């Protein structure tokens, strides 16, 4: 367990293993625990760094507005703090959004990019979009975080044999700071970098669960906008793929990273 400071905020991270740096970034309302089933498999080959995003886990939770660009800037500071150079980046959900932001703003810092069940924008365009946002916003304000976690656990891990995962979800969500949770949700809504995806110069793997919140077709559409990307669909999985299909996810990720590592690195122009 370690901390560093960026813009007055103490940010928590952990390191495992040795080798090429591999940065893992969790989703909204979660923490480094998102990656509990990946760290052992990845740390045998890579220097794995898992970070708690500002407002999450063991990191500080300042009472301020959050933004995806701000989360990305925190990770740039972490990369510089540890003198990592170009890293492999893996982001789940909100962590994927942060990865897209980092990739378009600082492409020279990424060796590769893996986006899991995420998108390069969250824009409200239709009347139904606004209605769905309002319903979720209202429920998050009205319900306790444990209740939200219990409901999410039921959606993400519905099988009888996933009872342990459902209980973990409820327990972990209950530990969130509600102000930070809501501020992070607000940071997502309206954000987007889709029009800048041509700047993502590194090899990119898009992982989509077949039962994710958003359809596979959405990922198929934005993969076409990326210069060097491919899509892999994980069967019988929902939004938390690294937790509900860890073996398949780990194998897919390691195969991708191995292919990238055998290709000579090219540092793009940051301008």
TrEMBL record:
<feature type="domain" description="AB hydrolase-1">
    <location>
        <begin position="21"/>
        <end position="133"/>
    </location>
</feature>
<dbReference type="InterPro" id="IPR029058">
    <property type="entry name" value="AB_hydrolase_fold"/>
</dbReference>
<protein>
    <submittedName>
        <fullName>Alpha/beta hydrolase</fullName>
    </submittedName>
</protein>
<dbReference type="GO" id="GO:0016020">
    <property type="term" value="C:membrane"/>
</dbReference>
<dbReference type="Pfam" id="PF00561">
    <property type="entry name" value="Abhydrolase_1"/>
</dbReference>
<keyword id="KW-0378">Hydrolase</keyword>
<dbReference type="GO" id="GO:0016787">
    <property type="term" value="F:hydrolase activity"/>
</dbReference>
<dbReference type="InterPro" id="IPR050266">
    <property type="entry name" value="AB_hydrolase_sf"/>
</dbReference>
<dbReference type="InterPro" id="IPR000073">
    <property type="entry name" value="AB_hydrolase_1"/>
</dbReference>
């Amino acid at each position: 367990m370690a901390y560093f400071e960026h813009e007055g905020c103490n940010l928590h991270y952990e390191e495992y293993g040795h080798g090429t740096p591999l940065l893992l970034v969790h989703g909204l309302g979660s923490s480094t625990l998102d990656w509990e089933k990946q760290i052992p498999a990845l740390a045998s080959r890579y220097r794995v760094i898992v970070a708690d995003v500002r407002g999450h886990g063991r990191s500080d939770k300042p009472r301020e507005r959050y933004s995806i660009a701000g989360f990305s800037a925190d990770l740039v500071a972490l990369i510089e703090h540890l003198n990592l150079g170009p890293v492999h980046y893996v982001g789940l959900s909100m962590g994927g959004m942060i990865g897209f932001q980092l990739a378009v703003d600082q492409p020279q810092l990424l060796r590769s990019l893996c986006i899991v069940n995420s998108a390069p924008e969250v824009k409200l365009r239709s009347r139904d979009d606004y209605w769905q946002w309002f319903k979720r916003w209202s429920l998050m304000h009205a319900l306790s975080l444990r209740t939200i976690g219990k409901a999410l656990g039921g959606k993400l891990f519905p099988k009888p044999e996933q009872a342990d995962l459902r209980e973990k979800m409820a327990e972990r969500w209950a530990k969130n700071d509600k102000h930070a949770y809501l501020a992070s949700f607000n940071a997502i809504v309206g954000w987007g970098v889709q029009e800048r995806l041509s700047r993502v110069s590194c090899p990119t793997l898009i992982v989509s669960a077949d039962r994710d919140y958003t359809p596979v077709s959405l990922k198929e559409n934005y993969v076409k906008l990326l210069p060097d990307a491919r899509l892999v669909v994980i069967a019988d999985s929902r939004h938390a793929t690294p937790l509900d299909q860890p073996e398949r996810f780990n194998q897919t990720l390691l195969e991708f990273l191995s292919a990238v590592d055998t290709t000579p690195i090219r540092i793009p122009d940051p301008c």
